[in-house]
Each structure stands twice: as structure tokens, then as C-alpha cells.
Design a protein that fits this description.
- It is a single chain.
- The protein is α/β, with parallel strands linked by helices.
- The relative contact order is 0.17.
- The strands form four sheets. Strands 2-8-7-6-5-3-4 form a seven-stranded mixed β-sheet, with helices on both faces.
- It binds glutamic acid.
- The site of glutamic acid has 10 residues, from α2 and α6.
């Protein structure tokens, strides 16, 4: 073990994937676990997308693609950006990668030097901090609580900026809180960033389509932000294609070129069949996937109602994504079924061990008073999970 680098030794394990693995293992051991840990649609990839992949195999798409992705796919990404986001990108501003996670890692690798500061409005997705750490950058949390619907203010942003600030990782709809910033809120944050022209914005919009009514907006829509924003998206969440591993960016040409160079030395590009399927996913009407969004919305409504009935759970109404992020700090200092609850990790372990329900601790997202519950699961499992949680806590 001592042969391992300091880099990997200091890297935290992904809390979302670790909890999902633990739930899987317990299931294999015969335990009746309900896993609400992973943010993964429980739907299958739609038939028309699967057919595009099958056709691609039959048509012998099997060679290396351009490192930044098939031109046809990058054109489809540009059309999508224009259609859904009113953003103008050309194919040489687009890089297709092995999931949005790799897109983000590429951007971090090409823009962050050791010692640079990265702003993370909290709560934030677990891998942002780890990706910044891998670049030897320092991540700086900007905290928020359920009282502000887990959103930060322009004043907070201003106060967090130092001469070393290089980037902000921004994510709306947000994982884990489900919060969505409105256009007005975006513009207010942009006003602050306008005063600091050397700060880059990574705008992670992977949950764009899992939205229950707040109009989606993009940082790059604001002309003063366009030249320093990297818009990240992918097909995993909206098209139930998590395992296909396709993400992409739209960015200034010089950043896209650098990401292309990075990727050329690391992966040579994303899987060719998944790329062909993504062309279909992006060019067919978005209305094709509305049945999933509708179902997620029903489940959200049900979960909010059920969780509100649990004493000690403080719940807000997430406007997008497929997570609820209750504040459970009222349990801190209590002992439940022999478990001393001092923090959100203790609480999440209590639910796993006593209720057989897997969730993710808020600590991993920079929100130590909360836990994340994914409702990308069947209604039956969600009802049963809440019933079990209630029983343990009553
Ligand atoms: N993004 C999903 C989640 O937060 C998938 C797991 C991961 O990559 O973290 O659960």
C-alpha cells in the first residue's frame, strides 16, 4: 500500500458510488435493501435510442472516432444547445467525453493549477471537490441551508472570491438539493463575476430536463459570461443512459482544444456505439422523454408528502433532479436503537442498518446536516422505504 501515490491516498472515495456498492453487497448477502443512494433513473433507455445503437453495430461502427467525438455528434450537440438553451456553439467548441464526469475532469485538468481556488456553492455533487483536489487546487465551499432553498446569494459569492479564485463549479438543477436558480438569480450572480474577469464558470447542466416548472437557464446565455463559461451536459439522466457514459461540453475554442488534447492522451475518445446512439437521443424531440419527467414529478410529490409526516425531518420542495435533501439535524445528540447519532453519516448508517434503506450522507456534499434520498426508484419501493424509516424513528 505504501507504493501508492500521495495523490490517490488523499483522494476520498466517491460517497455515492460507495453507498451504492455497499447496498449491492448487502443485497447479495440476502438482505432486503432498498437502495435510494444512487442518482440513476430506474427506467430503461428508450427503444428508439437502443435501435440506433443496434444499427450502428450492424453498420460496423467500430473504429476510433475523432478524439473529440464524431463530427455528426458534435453537430447534433450544437443543434441541441441552440434548440434547448439558445446557445450558439460550433462543432470545434464541443468535446464529447466518457460521461459528464470526465468532461468536468478534463476542464479541471486544463484550467486548474496547484494552489488555484475553486468555489463550490454547497451543497455540491461529491466529485467536484475530489476533481479539484486531483488538480491540487483548493476548493472553497460557499454554504447554504434549507432556509434559502439551498441557494447562495450574490453577496456570499462576492465574499468568497480572492485573488486566487480561478473557477466556480455551478450546478442547476442541483445534485443533491434539486434546487434550480432562476434567470434573475443567474444574472445577479453574473453581475458579481463581471467584476472578476479571470474567473471561469463550469456550468453543469446534466439535470436540465429533470425540471418541474422553473425555466432552465444557462450561464453562457449571458453575453459577458459566454467567453469564460464551460457548459457541461450529457445523456445519462434525461435519457436513462447512465451506463452508456456520454457527456459533452460547449466551451470557448481554446478550452475545447485543450480538453481534446487531454482526452487524446487519456481515453482517445468516447465509445463509438454510445456516440451514435447519442446522435439519435439529441436530435429526436425532447418530448419523447417527458413520460419519465412526469413520473419523477409524481414521485417527488409523494415523497415530500410522506417525508413531511416524519417527525424531525425538515423538507423543502426540490424543483428538479430526482433527490430530496431533508435536514435531519434534529436527531443529532440522540440515541436511536442503540446508535448514537452525532452527524448525518451516523444517521445514514442508522437507516441502512436498522431500516435497510440506503441513502447518502450530506457530509459528502458539503451539507453536514442533511441526507440525500434519491427517488429514482419505484413508487412501491419509495413507500416501503419511508414506512421503514418511520418505524425506526418512532
Ligand atoms: N451522479 C450520480 C449521483 O450523484 C451518479 C453517481 C456519481 O457519479 O456520483 O448519484
Amino acid at each position: 500500500m505504501n507504493f501508492l501515490t500521495d495523490r490517490i491516498k488523499s483522494l476520498p472515495i466517491s460517497a455515492t458510488l460507495a453507498m451504492a456498492a455497499k447496498a449491492r453487497q448487502l443485497k447479495q448477502e440476502g438482505k432486503d435493501i432498498i437502495s435510494l443512494s444512487l442518482g440513476e433513473p430506474d427506467f430503461n433507455t428508450p427503444e428508439y435510442i437502443k435501435e440506433a445503437a443496434i444499427k450502428a453495430i450492424q453498420e460496423n461502427y467500430n473504429s476510433y472516432t475523432s478524439v473529440n467525438g464524431y463530427l455528426e455528434l458534435r453537430e447534433a450537440v450544437c443543434l441541441k444547445f441552440k434548440r434547448d438553451n439558445k446557445l450558439e456553439y460550433t462543432p470545434n467548441q464541443v468535446v464529447v467525453s466518457t460521461g459528464a464526469k470526465q468532461s468536468i475532469a478534463n476542464v479541471a485538468q486544463v484550467l486548474l493549477n496547484p494552489g488555484d481556488e475553486v468555489l463550490l456553492p454547497a451543497p455540491y455533487w461529491v466529485s467536484y471537490s475530489a476533481i479539484a483536489t486531483l488538480c491540487e487546487a483548493k476548493f472553497v465551499e460557499i454554504p447554504s441551508t434549507i432556509k434559502t432553498n439551498f441557494k447562495i446569494t450574490p453577496e456570499q459569492l462576492e465574499n468568497a472570491i480572492t485573488p486566487k479564485t480561478k473557477m466556480i463549479f455551478f450546478n442547476s438543477p442541483n445534485n443533491p438539493s434539486g434546487s434550480i436558480y432562476t434567470e434573475t438569480e443567474y444574472r445577479a450572480l453574473a453581475k458579481v463575476l463581471e467584476k472578476h474577469p479571470n474567473i471561469f464558470i463550469l456550468s453543469d447542466e446534466i439535470y436540465e430536463h429533470i425540471n418541474y416548472g422553473v425555466k432552465h437557464f444557462s450561464f453562457a446565455r449571458i453575453p459577458s459570461m459566454y467567453d469564460r463559461t464551460i457548459t457541461v451536459n450529457g445523456v445519462a439522466k434525461a435519457f436513462a443512459m447512465t451506463g452508456w457514459r456520454i457527456g459533452y461540453i460547449g466551451a470557448p475554442k481554446w478550452i475545447a482544444k485543450a480538453c481534446n488534447k487531454m482526452q487524446g492522451q487519456i481515453t482517445s475518445g468516447a465509445n463509438c456505439i454510445a456516440q451514435r446512439a447519442t446522435i439519435t437521443a439529441l436530435t429526436e424531440p425532447v418530448s419523447n422523454i417527458h413520460y419519465m419527467v412526469k413520473e419523477f414529478r409524481n414521485r417527488r410529490d409523494m415523497m415530500i408528502k410522506l417525508l413531511k409526516e416524519i417527525n424531525g425531518f425538515e423538507v423543502n420542495i426540490p424543483k428538479g433532479a430526482f433527490y430530496v435533501f431533508p435536514d435531519i439535524s434534529s436527531y443529532f445528540g440522540k440515541t436511536i436503537k442503540g446508535h448514537q447519532i452525532n452527524n448525518a453519516s451516523d444517521f445514514s448508517m442508522l437507516l441502512l442498518e436498522e431500516a435497510n434503506v440506503a441513502t447518502v450522507t450530506g457530509d459528502a456534499f458539503g451539507a453536514p446536516t442533511c441526507i440525500r434520498i434519491s427517488y429514482a426508484a419505484s413508487e412501491e419501493n419509495l413507500r416501503e422505504a419511508v414506512k421503514r424509516i418511520k418505524a425506526v424513528l418512532s
